[in-house]
Amino acid sequence: MKLLASMEQIMRNKQVIFNGFIEGAPKVTDMEIKMSNIELKVPKGSGAFLVKNLYLSCDPYMRGRMRDNIASYLPPFVPGQPIQGFGVSKVVDSENPNLKPGDLVSGMTGWEEYSLIQTPLQLRKIQQNDIPLSYFVGLLGMPGFTAYVGFYEVCSPKKGDYIFVSAASGAVGQLVGQLAKLHGCYVVGSAGSSQKVDLLKNKLGFDEAFNYKEEPDLDAALRRYFPEGIDIYFDNVGGPMLDAALLNMRIHGRIAICGMVALHSYSDPQGLHNVFSLVPKRITMRGFLQSDFLHLYPQFLEHVIRNYEQHKIVYIEDMNEGLESAPAAFAGLFSGKNIGKQVVCVARE
Amino acid sequence: MKLLASMEQIMRNKQVIFNGFIEGAPKVTDMEIKMSNIELKVPKGSGAFLVKNLYLSCDPYMRGRMRDNIASYLPPFVPGQPIQGFGVSKVVDSENPNLKPGDLVSGMTGWEEYSLIQTPLQLRKIQQNDIPLSYFVGLLGMPGFTAYVGFYEVCSPKKGDYIFVSAASGAVGQLVGQLAKLHGCYVVGSAGSSQKVDLLKNKLGFDEAFNYKEEPDLDAALRRYFPEGIDIYFDNVGGPMLDAALLNMRIHGRIAICGMVALHSYSDPQGLHNVFSLVPKRITMRGFLQSDFLHLYPQFLEHVIRNYEQHKIVYIEDMNEGLESAPAAFAGLFSGKNIGKQVVCVARE
């Protein structure tokens, strides 16, 4: 059958190839732009579907897939193959009974112009509305849902709680802070530049925010912003900030461990020194993944879309143009180059 | 009134005095035996009561009261005053309407022959039965109750779970293991001598046990004993064992942080390096104190006494004779000298 495919259906397919396993933070040179060919036709009866990728999501968890030495919750990337990640895509051809050409979907896809998807992962059909398409990898995608379940299901928030969010202007943090404000909490965020601090205070509605790079003593900084202590720490960074937060938690405090972007190396991870605080303060520290809570996705969507439409939630994106910009956009996450959710636009439709 | 007290009521009162604040592990020289006098009569209308101390409990948490630099859940000891701790005592005189001479009580008392108690803490009247009196500071006291609430309320145990207990032959660990076996779990314990390992396997009913001092690689040891991983780690030690356990937890594993006897210094605590495991494995790590669960004490007592009377629970005590032995007994906890629950017998009645 393949031999009979018409030449019109063979397209050039630009790809971002994974060069090989790494140890520290991802660099631009760990990826490579390559051209290949793809037939825009799904093999009959395969159950697969073929998409044109529109928006690709750059997320810190992807670093874990660049290592092969520690079991992660997702398999490692395959050297020589395209990077995988969440994206918003348009169906071009389909042997999947639930999808037809023209459908818009979000889910795991390849970092390339076109992807043939055999085994969909967190695939969702997008019902078009007034919300920007790219938000389906951000506010309404994995990061937004992570914020939602992390806040409501892991942090056990109560009205009036004192909440601290690190990487607070990032894809997850910015929504955590806004949900916490809507819940009646007092919210302080940390970020790595004065521009981000300004966004937190003046656009995202945080009560206070600070630039951690300007704080020589993180413990003292948290004591200043939380003289009464912290009820909930939503941790996106780990490392010294988590250590400082441990010293400033209140009794029965809760720490949601969402990710550890500050962890520079897995083979020689920095030490945490203040875990002993867990006992006298009866702190609960819990790691979580949004994928354990997928049954809550519909109620999340309803909650966030309603608040977004009522202008009670905003979302900040950092949009890079063109697939070629993807390696730099991704590597930039680990030095905090992005302002808001990092997305790469491959095509607008 | 005091001047009228008869001379017969003035007694010599041997005491264990706290010498002053410390940083590292407690040493014998941090305490001192001293003689003082006490009038065996409670001031009229004071509401206080006076006890003769029979059994005193040596517990690792007491180290926290020997420091004055970090807020603990109990106030620091007062230099020059007797050490405070849990004990079993006999009421000698009472202005407390609930107590009369001859009553046996457990609760916070002084390390001395006689104590005048103004503000009772975790005071309980002992209903005499066939259970040894000293067990009211061990199996039926704070350590036993810690094991009970830690296991049932913090670990969320399920039948068939794989459970690891460190300091497993200690005051808390030995009961955790036995409760876990009664619950249908697979239980492995670690301890610091072959004699303790033998007790765990042959007297306390653990499925397996090992001497951590003979394991150059704790991670490898846990992999050997838990090829399928650990569902619940009941942590009594912190430090390198906690780090190794973090690498061996199963998905949705739970870690109860009960104490950190391996923490040699608070001002320069050892680092924990594997906390990043919390996210991919969605681990919950929770510090707790038995004092948050006091409403469960009656059901604990009923459960443990019933199983003890049916010979389904045993309890190992390390009993030192005489108040003079208390400093060495207490200091010995931090090098694992004790075999089982460390108690000091001051008087038998």
Automatic annotation (TrEMBL), chains A, B:
Instruction: Cite the Enoyl reductase (ER) domain residue spans from the record.
Output: 65-344
Keywords in alphabetical order, please.
Oxidoreductase
Tagged with keyword Oxidoreductase: yes
* Pfam families for this protein: ADH_N_2, ADH_zinc_N
| One MF annotation (Gene Ontology) recorded for this entry | oxidoreductase activity, acting on the CH-CH group of donors, NAD or NADP as acceptor
* Protein name per its UniProtKB record: ADH_zinc_N domain-containing protein
Native species: Cephalotus follicularis (Albany pitcher plant)
